[in-house]
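Researcher: Following up on the earlier apo prediction. This time include the ligand. It's coenzyme A, with the SMILES given after the sequence.
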Amino acid sequence: MEFYKEIAIKNGQMCILRNAKESDAESFMRYFELAHGETDFLTTYPDESEHNLNKTAERLNAAKESKTNIEICAFVDNQLIGSAGNNMIHDRDKTRHRAGFGISIVKEYWGLGIGRALTESCIECAKKAGFLQLELDVVADNTTAIELYKRCGFVEFGRNPRGFKTREENWQELVLMRLELDSMN
Ligand SMILES: CC(C)(COP(=O)(O)OP(=O)(O)OC[C@H]1O[C@@H](n2cnc3c(N)ncnc32)[C@H](O)[C@@H]1OP(=O)(O)O)[C@@H](O)C(=O)NCCC(=O)NCCS
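Model: Understood. Below is the ligand-bound prediction.
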């Protein structure tokens, strides 16, 4: 899907939100590793990323060409510093209405309104794509993300106490959240 928006963030800088393309692959990999090393709230450790320029480029291109899925990147000063995306849960008649949502931003840019803008942009794209429900899992201790999701209309529908097991052998409870897109204003 195509997406483009410019927003002013809370420190006065401009931020461009646009779909990632093949040529963003190298910066995307750099941002991904940085952002995934700065928090323990994400599913993937930085060393579990693809580490493959061609595969990353292919994946970004596929999302851009997709009629339903999207990866929106946030650029400040021409640097890719965050991204969020929607992916169809499963391409079957009974599940085609559901998309999964994910987001991460490099720490230096937290708290500036980029997460809110990326989430709202993905909601807009999910509606345009015809999805009826957007879903996510979030670590129960991730209060910033949970607050962001609630403000965007997501509601909790369950918990998975053993959702993640960290490399330090700690359980992380996951909160399951969903947003009904066809009942939004
Ligand atoms: C979670 C994350 C995406 C939020 O993005 P962000 O750009 O920092 O968030 P925003 O500045 O847009 O703030 C959005 C909301 O979050 C909440 N929030 C932001 N900073 C907060 C803080 N320090 N404490 C509590 N709530 C906070 C506020 O409710 C804010 O609402 P507002 O838009 O009405 O002000 C970002 O912190 C991040 O990438 N974290 C690491 C990866 C991660 O946890 N991803 C989510 C996995 S499910």
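Model: Residues 2 and 145 are 25 Å apart (CA to CA).
Researcher: Noted. I'll compare it with the apo version next.
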